[in-house]
Amino acid sequence: MSIYQSDLDALKRLCREQEGRWDNINPESVARMRAQNRFRTGLDIARYTASIMRRDMHEYDRDPSRYTQSLGCWHGFIGQQKMISIKKHHGTTQGRYLYLSGWMIAALRSEFGPLPDQSMHEKTAVPALIEELYTFLRQADARELTHLFRELDQARKQGNEVAARGVLEKIDNFETHVVPIIADIDAGFGNEEATYLLAKKMIEAGACCIQLENQVSDAKQCGHQDGKVTVPHEDFVAKINAVRHAFLELGVDDGVIVARTDSLGAGLTQKLPVSKEPGDLAHQYNSFLYTVPICSADDLDEGDSVIKLDGDLRKPLRLANGLYRFRSDTGEDRVVLDCINALQNGADLLWIETEKPHIGQIAGMVDRIRAVVPDAKLVYNNSPSFNWTLNFRQQVFDRWESEGRDLSAYDRAQLMSAEYDDSELAAEADRWVQNFQRDASREAGVFHHLITLPTYHTAALSTDELAQGYFGEAGMLAYVAGVQRQEIRRGMASVKHQDMAGSNIGDDHKEYFSGAAALKAGGTHNTMNQFG
């Protein structure tokens, strides 16, 4: 028996048991509303999506070609349209997630206005956006099921039982738009207790995966800017523990923690950890510092610190702001140590923030990590902060140069120039970009590829194109030809914006509640009918 039909039969029995008091309730209407509201709470979503993500991680371990992907979102509508488009073009949401970017919350969602990515935005904006994204994804479910229910009613009205059974099968096998969200908690917005409290709110809103970085919370910088300050390992592990406790307290046992290290580009630390014995984590952390030997008190200035490293007294270089500097050649070693320690202390996935998209660089670090933790996997930021065109043209140039090819037609320093766009080198670089995710997942352990802030750029680009035409010679044609006609030709749900906003769902509900007396919006004079 159909799952939908089974639920309907149970509701019919329930209504009959009320001895006439519920005669105004149509059991099928309730069955439809239940199907449209599969997830009752954010914790329902977090548990469901965590199980999906764990399954995908196991699949990747068996077959690295089964990597996953996501795009960053800053509004519920953006996330909703992504998942609708994925289902339309690819038939399934499997392996496709959403990413919630702290950068985009800071830049686009703060009540202070646009802010840099420095954890200055309201921490409450993070769980609020998670809740908003899932509200829009659940509404996408309701909208699509509304159309299926109407299709079922039409088949029944025509007496077409074959068509009706086919629609019932679609309803029973309906794939939700609700997918995992990897949610950015920055550096935790405070100490470990603050991290725990915010993580709870994020999980209660639906987050199954929380990404945490090893920067100092009150000195946090964007991963692709200068001035990053990292914390000792025990401080970071305390916050990993805080997030895990939040997951377990709320019953999300499969919750996923992404441990991000910014050590590759971070040259500073605020705190010298206490080493208890040679070779421990604190000793290793301190060994990366830029230090000078101390022979006597005369080698010290007022207020200087001294540490004992490998039997020698040494003075860490302290800057005017009180921060300590790491040696410039230690970045990759610190990344490897960060990652191994995070995985051994409760993290599930790694995020290594790099300065360029280079598979060899990533693989070199991952190989060292996997020598200790064989199933180590990465979430990798395919960042718009990289100049992808220039980086890959230079990588191809360097490869060809090492192979002894004639490169006299190219100037490596000017490869971004449009004059090279139709060149053989540019075509090869574009092939490398096209295959980057596939190759990085196979060769460098990348389980999940994301673009942190793509819709920041797509919104700016599409607005620029529309503004240029609409306020210029094209006038209204800029919108009609460049937007609406493209929506129609591409079969986009958004062209029927009234339906997308829930007008048909509301009409159905009015009919459920008021019967023939319902005042509905979707009648003959609704201009949405012009779109077929």
From TrEMBL:
Catalytic activity: D-threo-isocitrate = glyoxylate + succinate
Superkingdom field: Bacteria
Keywords linked to the UniProt accession: Lyase, Magnesium, Metal-binding
Pfam families, A to Z: ICL
CDD domains reported for this sequence: ICL_PEPM (cd00377)
Enzyme active site: 222
BP GO annotations: carboxylic acid metabolic process
Alphabetical list of InterPro entries matching this protein: ICL/PEPM, Isocitrate_lyase, Pyrv/PenolPyrv_kinase-like_dom, Pyrv_kinase-like_dom_sf
Cofactor: how bound: Can also use Mn(2+) ion.
Cofactor: Mg(2+)
Keyword field contains Protein transport: no
Any one GO MF annotation of this record: metal ion binding
The name this protein goes by in its record: Isocitrate lyase
Organism annotation: Salinicola endophyticus
